[in-house]
Design goal:
The protein is of the alpha/beta class. It has helices at 56-61, 65-72, 145-157, 195-213, 244-260, 276-285, 288-293, 309-318, 336-349, 382-391, and strands at 22-25, 28-31, 34-46, 49-53, 76-79, 82-85, 91-94, 161-165, 217-221, 267-273, 296-300, 322-327, 353-356, 360-361, 368-371, 376-380, 399-403, 408-413, 418-425, 431-436, 442-443, 447-453, 462-467, 473-478, 482-488, 491-492. The strands form six sheets. The protein has a nine-stranded mixed sheet. Strands 12-11-10-9-8-7-4-13 form an eight-stranded parallel sheet.
Length: 493
């Protein structure tokens, strides 16, 4: 999943400066400000929520109820000595692994990349091709206890949507018996005789989860960044290349294996490409028959500020499919790069969900810095508080609205008659915002707000005194490089 080897761009794109006009008066610089109009008639669907993947961090830290609460509940929790507002994520992605350490009857055993650490090897339940019967000795359902425990904690904390995703087929299904990838990374590493087995494995886990874990996987994804060339035999994690033609063969197999087990309601997701560009080309390259079986187009955000967000949205939307953003991460611990990409995603990609890769990870890659190989939580990054500004307020069931300015994300939550606005000032000076709510039927207020100051870290998801709504306008100022979230109450479309 992994953009883990990609460089992190830390520059702010030029389009952000459009929101801000500088006026020079008598040698002083003042900010003229941004006028933002919210259009409740132009909408981008009902929000399905925020999520994260389990996998590595859950394998290492899956017994930590406090960490589950910080990510999946709205409780106030202490993490590494810092009090944090629980993010309340409602979407969790579970990763069935590809590794086992047994030797088969014919003498075959897993080939391990010299560069993969144990913390990135995930346990496989199907340890021997001798039998596809999940109650046979060819299966070991006792493994992966920590990730399965975090799955249960997530459900207990309120997660209501689960996706099963594979990084690589089980090692014995791989052409070179290595679940990190093929020699070059440019060739498919699933042995063609095991295409059905790969589909069967995912369907059997989905059935087991329903019947014995009390977990309903709403969707299943058979691939992870399949068109990328970095899944090599010397790689640092599990991964497998699948060209679009092979994906087109496996998707119908997955549908039939799910259906054979009465799992007709479970949806198929594809293809979790690393970038908007690859997601678009893969979607357009999939055979029509395979496309028709896909419900969710999953995409990762590792193209960062670049790539055809609008083109991908248009292609997926016109196909009648739902676009899910299922992975994002980078090494900027401040959260500034993440905020930049969130605003681009809401304005151009229009996903129905947005997912962070590993909330606990090394350095800035985590919302919380953690030493995963040694199962140690280290310190809360400012990025956690930045994410809270979005994830705690744009709730499942809210409708995403059009905003005239990229600095502002807008969502209307009809159940509570609340308008949520998340404003990001990426500029180097304080900016005033005049938000025009004139297109709403009612916009009475009052308004509450919270701030995270990325530039100086002073305010970390700090409530500020209430604003007033006057004549359907909200006027406020935003400090340089900061995020504010507003909840305007008593708003009707």
């Amino acid at each position: 999943s992994s953009g883990a080897h990609l460089a992190t761009p830390n520059t702010m794109p030029a389009w952000f400066s459009l929101a801000i006009a500088l006026v020079f008066i008598g040698g002083l610089t003042t900010i003229q400000g941004a006028n933002v109009k919210i259009d409740p008639q132009t909408t981008f669907g009902v929000w399905r929520g925020w999520g994260c993947s389990l996998a590595w961090w859950a394998q290492a830290l899956g017994n930590r109820t406090d960490l589950a609460a910080a990510i999946f509940s709205r409780q106030t929790v202490s993490v590494a000595g810092t009090t944090v507002p629980g993010l309340g994520l409602n979407f969790a992605r579970y990763n069935p692994g590809a590794c086992s350490w047994n030797t088969l009857a014919d003498g075959k055993h897993m080939v391990t990349s010299p560069n993969i650490g144990r913390s990135r090897q995930m346990d496989s339940f199907w340890i021997d091709p001798a039998s596809s019967d999940p109650s046979s000795a060819a299966w070991n359902w006792s493994v992966d206890a920590n990730q399965r425990n975090m799955l249960q904690l997530a459900k207990k904390m309120g997660v209501d949507t689960f996706q099963l995703f594979s990084n690589s087929p089980v090692w014995w299904m791989c052409a070179n018996l290595n679940p990190s990838g093929s020699p070059s990374g440019r060739t498919d590493n699933l042995n063609t005789q095991y295409q059905k087995s790969h589909a069967e494995y995912l369907a059997i886990i989905t059935q087991r989860a329903r019947d014995q874990w009390n977990i309903t996987f709403e969707s299943v994804e058979a691939f992870n960044e399949p068109s990328s060339a970095w899944w090599t035999a010397a790689g640092t994690q599990e991964g497998c290349h699948f060209d679009a033609r092979t994906q087109g063969q496996i998707i119908p197999l997955l549908r039939s294996e799910l259906d054979a087990r009465g799992l007709h309601a479970v949806k198929i997701a594809a293809s979790d490409e690393t970038s908007f560009s690859l997601a678009l080309s893969t979607w357009q390259s999939l055979p029509r028959a395979a496309q028709s079986l896909v419900d969710y187009v999953d995409v990762h955000g590792y193209e960062y500020e670049a790539g055809p967000r609008e083109g991908l949205y248009k292609a997926v939307h016109e196909s009648g499919k739902v676009l899910l953003h299922t992975e994002y991460g980078e090494g900027d611990a401040s959260g500034q790069t993440m905020a930049t990409n969130l605003h681009l995603d809401f304005h151009a990609l229009h996903p129905s969900m947005w997912t962070y890769w590993q909330p606990f990870d090394g350095g800035g890659w985590g919302l919380v810095a953690a030493d995963i190989p040694n199962s140690k939580v280290q310190s809360v990054n400012l990025k956690f508080f930045v994410f809270a500004q979005y994830a705690r307020h744009i709730n499942k069931g809210c409708t995403i609205l059009s905003s005239s300015d990229t600095s502002t994300i807008a969502a209307h939550c009809p159940a509570t008659r609340t308008l949520v606005l998340v404003l990001f000032n990426s500029g180097s000076s304080t900016t005033s915002f005049d938000i025009d709510l004139g297109a709403f039927h009612t916009a009475a207020g009052p308004a509450s707000r919270w701030e995270t100051n990325i530039k100086n870290g002073n305010n970390k998801y700090t409530p500020l005194s209430d604003l007033s709504v006057s004549g359907k306008h909200v006027i406020l100022s935003l400090a340089a490089v900061s995020v504010q979230t507003l909840e305007v109450h008593n708003v009707d479309v």
